[in-house]
Amino acid sequence: MTLLSVVAPSVPAHPREWDATATLIRSTSMHRLWVGQSYGLDSTAMLARLAGRGLAVPCGSSVMVAGLTDPRRAAGEARSIAAMTGHPFLHGIGPGSRAVQHRLRPDEPAMRLDDLRRYVETLRTELDPTRPGLLEPIATPPVHVGLGVLRPRAAALAGEIADAWLSWMAPATYLAETIVPTVHAAAASHRRPAPHGMAMVAVGVDRPGRDRWAMAHLAVGGHIRQPHYRDAVRRSGIQIHDDYERTIASLLRHRLFVYGTADEIADHLHETYGAAGVDEIALMTIATTNLYGADATYEDLADIEAAFAHRSSTSHVERRAHA
Fold it and tell me: Which of 40, 103, 128, 293 lies 20 to 30 angstroms, CA to CA, from 302?
């Protein structure tokens, strides 16, 4: 059964900003709270605060920019979050955009996959109490390592070394036809289990007075201006135009921003991403938050979760009936 999770709906500027999201996860079948690299308040500090307030939930990062944090410090932070929440932590990393990498290392070339491989190796050394590292051995819930995946070479690396692959701006057909088979083939060739697969999907519920174009601009418009996302989207077969508005129309048509009623969104997620071999879908609702506020976001998430849970339970009953 495909899990349904939530991406933190805002870049935090106030310590209490994610409290309602954690409360929603605790009161529904939502599986996990996903956070990204925050250039507002620090994501790991926000998660630690939730735990301290009695709002601990399973959580993961998708993704942290590898060049911002030494892997030994990253291992210590991830292990600390696992200890404070009492849940396994899925620590996802990625190289970041070329622009971010240039600001971090202006005199060095962009991070390569071999650099990520070494980063993961150091992370694993520090997280394994049986291997000599810098961190003191402490018993905590496990920390799993994930890799952000846009293209086949990163998918192959994730299959080889990661516990999870994490996608964004990827239609279900591209995942089913390219990413999932590549991950699974690499894992099989290295005689290891296929990593857990998570797809982050931008969604917006159709309600009176809402502007789907404005929501699409906020949800995916900024990312599609970045070269690595443009390349990945092109690889998925979606046409990218020189005209920005035509590109947004193309993304809407191919449902990289999934807009509709809660039932329509749940149907699409279940029938496409669930069928593509994705283990977990994380709902990204930052457009709703920015345009219509936090209360509207939580109403949307609760409605989508209820509709998705109904479809999942119905599908499970049907599978048992045909078994």
Answer: 40
Q: Identify the DSSP state of 317.
A: H
Residue 164 phi/psi, 5-degree rounding, is -155, 150
Interhelix angle 71-85/113-127, rounded to 10 degrees, is: 50
Q: What is the pLDDT of residues 7-33, one digit of tens each?
A: 999 999 999 999 999 999 999 999 999
Q: What's the CA gap between 45 and 184, in Å, rounded?
A: 34
CA distance 75 to 119: 10
Per-residue pLDDT band at 317 (split at 50, 70, 90)? very low
Question: What spatial distance separates the first Cα and last Cα of the chain, rounded to whole Å?
Answer: 16
Catalogue all structural domains in the chain, each as residue range(s) with its CATH number: 3-322 (3.20.20.30)
288, 302, 282: which is closest to 217 by C-alpha?
288
Q: Which helix (H) or strand (E) covers residue 85, if one does? A: helix 71-85
CA–CA dist 259, 243 (Å, integer): 22
